[in-house]
Amino acid sequence: MHTTVQARTDPEIAWFARLAIAPDPELDMGEAALRIASARYPLLNVRRYLGRLDAIARTAGPRAARCPHLHDKVEVLREVVYKDLGLRGNGRQYYDPRNSYLNEVLDRRLGIPLTMAIVLLEVAERIHVPLRGVSFPGHFLVRVGETETFMDPWEGGRLLSVDDCRILLERQGRGSFAFDRRFLRPATKREILLRLLRNLKVAHTKREEWEEALAALDRLLALAPEEVAELRDRGELNLRADRYSRAIQDFERYLEYVPGAPDRVSIEKRLLEARRKLFSLN
Description:
This protein is an alpha+beta fold. It contains 12 helices and 6 strands.
């Protein structure tokens, strides 16, 4: 049975709920990524940072327009983003949540493969260079047009073949499952935003930053109301954040939507704990 989760009523959450039904080409991924960041940075000027992306595109556009071949245009894009802008991977603090907030990535010139790819994709879209995101296991990539050439955002946009991608998977220690060419299919903008929100959920949960993790989950569930397992996770985070009423609501709805859930017993125990804690406050 197909189920959906009703989003919170906050205006920003409602904005993401509207994205859930919008055609993918109409999604403004840059604006959405910045609105995700505004949960952490309430005074963030979204238009200002979109203007930053526009400015990068104004630098790259005329140079790319002079190039007759797609790969030459890609080289211009790499030069502008990695040399002129100075974007680089934050290997020393990879799990710092700031690496997943687009405003911080643009300010600090530091990111992770996913957010570095978002910068590439947003600039490329503005200058009409056909790039697509690829939600590769453990390491986000970018596909060059309809070719079988890929960019590694983490390594300065280094170009990769399909065989290089296979080797990358092996090096990441993910040899427990076989390489599949389906790993290289283009991701939708919505899928990219969901991956970004999951990254934030994990990063803030590891730091026990419950409010920030909950903000990511609220947006994730608004954008993908069919992701019922995230409702269970939001219940757990609400419980840890002492939001007992919300935890109860999330756990109850999860069990309602997934009556045969394999973790039903453990969730019922967490639900009972939330009810006891709520009762103790009254």
